[in-house]
Amino acid sequence: MAYEDILYEVADRVATVTLNRPDKLNAWTGKMEAEVREAMLGADRDDKVRVIVLTGAGRGFCAGADIGNLDSLSKSGDPSDTVQRLRASFAGPKIDAARPDFQKTYSYFPALSKPVIGAINGAAAGLGFVISLYCDIRFASNKAKFTTAFARRGLIAEYGISWMLPRLVGVSNALDLLFSARLIDANEALRIGLVSAVIPQEQFAGEVRKYALMLANEVSPRSLRVMKRQVYGALFQDLAGAIDTANEEMVHSLVCQDFKEGVAHYLEKRAPAFTGK
User: Fold this and answer.
1) Considering only CA atoms, which of 126, 131, 119, 168 is closest in space to residue 147?
2) In this structure, are 201 and 254 located in the same domain?
3) Are residues 65 and 176 in the same domain?
4) pLDDT digits (tens, 9 = 90+) for 194-248
5) Helices marked H in 46-112 — which ranges?
6) CA dihedral defined by 125, 123, 146, 85, rounded to 10 degrees?
7) Residue 28 carries which DSSP code?
8) H or E segment at 245?
9) 271: part of which helix (H) or strand (E)?
10) How far apart are the C-alpha atoms of 127 and 159, rounded to whole Å?
11) Which of 30, 44, 159, 174 has the fewest CB neighbours in a 10 Å radius?
């Protein structure tokens, strides 16, 4: 598929989805949403892909919803029409066997079977901030900045971040970021647990790719797939339920091909050749 608002590349088992409106700091549009969804779902189905990286072109990751769209909504003469159009946009993709929670407009990243790395290269604001939260792992450039923005636009905690953000940074930090809509830098994001690492801008793309390649080539794709499902599923379980799930998955893992390869490559002191089966 030819894309207009994103770039899509697959190389060395890594799919890179790049938001590509750099002159607008990759401000989000309906077309971008549709293209990102198509690319992410396609990468998840592609046997040549084991890891997905989401990043932005130019100086920004995503500056939020395109301000032109927000201006149009704020000046709409027919509130009922605005409400109807918004509600029509809330439907997410249908993903087999995924929880309904992870089939909403932007919450489908956790339902993908492959790791999604958010490479936050610059500003992540508003809707861009939301999208970064649904990535499995976030790395930030030292030039990255974050803001929820919503309270300063007369809006609310959008698209489920009232559920996701406290689980990442704690309730108090989440409320601070939501209430104040203040801008935080990459180092503060690291301190509160919003990102896993801060990397100098000049090394950023290379270091993120190095990590993605490690996941793509050195660990079992089956393990990644099952672990991701376990972790997101455990958010809805008690400890006993998580243990029961782990016990059942352990039984299956001990008879899979990747387990046999995991033991063999370690004993033979060679690089692994995992198949994901």
Assistant:
1) 126
2) no
3) yes
4) 999 999 999 999 999 999 999 999 999 999 999 999 999 999 999 999 999 999 9
5) 67-74, 79-89
6) 10
7) B
8) helix 239-253
9) none
10) 9
11) 30
